């Protein structure tokens, strides 16, 4: 009888130890909720009227303000090469972590962070235009710190981007 009770106790302990504590989707949703509160509070505090990027009618939490629309008929896709000038700022600290005042790099839009892919394409900004993106951590570098930029994990970022050229 004691052996059966001991076996059942060990069996219960094994099942209790198998509980999944690394529920990544739940962690992502929780961080998205935190980011959303921080971004909306920042926008309200600074009286910024920004539009939210949506995908199939679902808000992504990425906000944008088109400062200058620009011109042209270019269509932005993931294979579009963009030449930009930009400044990146950590929203929580106000610290600028990168600026391209001296040069204008070119990127394939599909190789940039998701915040740029959605934000630049959905904002409607054209060649010569400028846009400010408010990017939650999930669409930037997520839970991965970027020591070379001085960014902590889950950093919420602001990008002020001027679109110099678009090549399809």
Could you write a compact summary of the structure shown?
The protein is α+β, with helices and mostly antiparallel strands and 168 residues long. The chain has helices spanning 2-17, 24-45, 114-123; strands at residues 51-55, 58-68, 81-90, 96-99, 106-108, 130-135, 157-167. It has a single domain (50-167), classed as Roll (Chitinase A, domain 3), CATH 3.10.50.40.
List the helices and strands and how they pair.
Elements (H helix, E strand, L loop, with lengths): L1 H16 L6 H22 L5 E5 L2 E11 L12 E10 L5 E4 L6 E3 L5 H10 L6 E6 L21 E11 L1
Antiparallel strand pairs: 1-2, 2-6, 3-4, 3-5, 3-7, 6-7
Walk me through the structure.
By secondary structure, the protein is an alpha+beta fold. It has a single domain, classed as Roll (Chitinase A, domain 3), CATH 3.10.50. Helices cover 29% and strands 30% of the residues. It has three helices and seven strands. It has helices spanning 2-17, 24-45, 114-123; strands at 51-55, 58-68, 81-90, 96-99, 106-108, 130-135, 157-167. Strands 1, 2, 3, 4, 5, 6 and 7 form a seven-stranded antiparallel sheet that branches. Strand 3 (81-90) and strand 4 (96-99) form a beta hairpin. The longest helix is centred in the first third of the chain and has 22 residues, at 24-45. It starts with a helix and ends with a strand.
